[in-house]
Amino acid sequence: MKTLPMYAGLAALAVAAVSLPAVAANSMGSMMAAHATVVQIKPLNGSGESGTATLTDTKAGLKVVVAITGAPADAQPAHIHKGSCAKLDPKPWYPLSNVVGGKSTTVVKGVTIAQIAGKSAINVHKSTTDIATYVACGDVAKSSAMKM
Questions:
Q1: HSE on the CB side for 88, CA within 13 Å?
Q2: Which of 10, 57, 127, 128 is the residue whose CA sits 20 to 30 A from 73?
Q3: pLDDT per residue over 49-85, tens digit each?
Q4: Residue 145 gets which letter from DSSP?
């Protein structure tokens, strides 16, 4: 049986495409392995609010998806702060979309997991009128910067 050269080339191309790892361009234009990490959000000040923040490096920037259980329906400000939950810099480093009904999705342009890992925390405030009260927090672990 004779194989046609055109079909052999297409088959090789298909195998190569399936074998290559997924890559995404970061904000600097270089290629990096696409990956995500999950930050555990723990309750503060007896709030009972806990959940996760899923961080994903995307071409558009750092995608942060917050999912909190026990949260009120009203808007709760959320930020990435420098430091850790135990020693938080009160000045927000990067703002996130308000958590409403326990959910928030934000893309932070020009930022990657590697840039914030090991030196930041995701913090949720009680309400837009009570920003001084922290109700939930999760440290972005240094191991989050490791590529998958």
A1: 23
A2: 57
A3: 999 999 999 999 999 999 999 999 999 999 999 999 9
A4: G
Report the candidate in 65, 68, 64, 62 with the shortest Cα–Cα distance to residue 125. Answer: 68
Q: How far apart are CA 54 and CA 65, in angstroms?
A: 5
Contacts of 148 (CB under 8 A, 6+ apart): 33, 35
Q: Which token pair is 117?
A: 């890992």
E strand segments, the chain: 23-25, 31-33, 36-43, 50-58, 61-69, 75-83, 88-100, 103-108, 120-125, 134-140
**Based on the number of CB atoms within 10 Å of its own CB, is 19 exposed (0-12), middle (13-18) or buried (19 or more)?**
exposed
Q: Are 90 and 82 in contact (CB under 8 A)?
A: no
Residues 92-114: what's their mean pLDDT? 97
Q: Is the pTM of this model over 0.85?
A: no
Q: Could you tell me whether strands 36-43 and 31-33 are parallel, antiparallel, or unpaired per DSSP bridges?
A: unpaired
